[in-house]
Amino acid sequence: MTGSTTGGLLDAGDVDPTRLRRAMSRFASGVTVVTTAVDGPDGPEAHGMTANAFLSVSLSPPLVLVSVAAGARSHRRIADTGRYGVSVLRAEQQALSRHFAGVEAAPEQVRFDWRDGLPLIDGALVQLACTVRASHPAGDHVLHVASVDRLWADDGAPLLLYNGRPRTLRPAPEERPAPGTTGLSQ
């Protein structure tokens, strides 16, 4: 391994952040909304952000990780509450991803399922209720590793991000419904 280290991280040297972001956009990823509940004057209020820097860390024990910008409100709120929810979005939930990314307001489409004290996106493919076990500073982000306390999952096509644009998967031929059927389980 070459390069110097600073605080345990490799020195990026001459890697331009804009060029790195463009290169990393070539890695297709699912799109999630990471949420937490904060105390408001009338009870818990939902706060969320779109994230594609999310991954499964361990199956036993069940652990996941989300990477959040150190200066983001979401980081502070997750650090304060010690909990977060993850909603894996469906292909048709693109407007929600844009809303929680702060790109395009769509408050009329935001509906939460409040589960285990956390706001989770209604109709998402997967919903996870998580408790933070460790937080690690990493450059300009913080990695929040959490145990999965509860989960809910459904079938469907996921919303993906590739090259900065939303994408979907086409079902494989063996997964497509037969002609004249709805494809719904009986």
Mean pLDDT level:
86
Query: What multimeric state do the chains show?
Result: single chain
- The proportion of residues in beta strands is over 45%
Overall number of strands: 14
- State the helical fraction: 10-25%
Shape: globular
Low-pLDDT stretches are 1-6, 182-186
Spatial extent as radius of gyration: 18 Å
**Terminal Cα separation, in Å?**
55 Å
- Class per helix and strand makeup: mainly beta
How many helix segments? 3
**Major β-sheet strand ordering:** 5-4-8-11-12-7-6
Helix and strand pattern: EEHEEEEEHEHEEEEEE
Largest pleated sheet = 7 strands, antiparallel
Describe this structure in words.
- The longest helix has 9 residues, at 73-81.
- A hairpin with a 2-residue loop joins strand 1 and strand 2 (9-10).
- The strands form 4 sheets. Strands 5-4-8-11-12-7-6 form a 7-stranded antiparallel β-sheet. A 3-stranded antiparallel β-sheet has the order 3-13-14, with no helix packed on it. A two-stranded antiparallel ribbon has the order 1-2.
- The chain is mainly beta and 186 residues long.
- 13% of the residues lie in helices and 45% in strands.
- It has helices at residues 17-24, 73-81, 94-100, and strands at residues 5-6, 9-10, 29-30, 32-40, 43-51, 54-58, 63-69, 83-88, 112-115, 118-121, 126-138, 141-153, 159-162, 165-168.
- It is built from 3 helices and 14 strands.
- It is globular and about 50 Å long.
- The model is unreliable at 1-6 and 182-186 (pLDDT under 50).
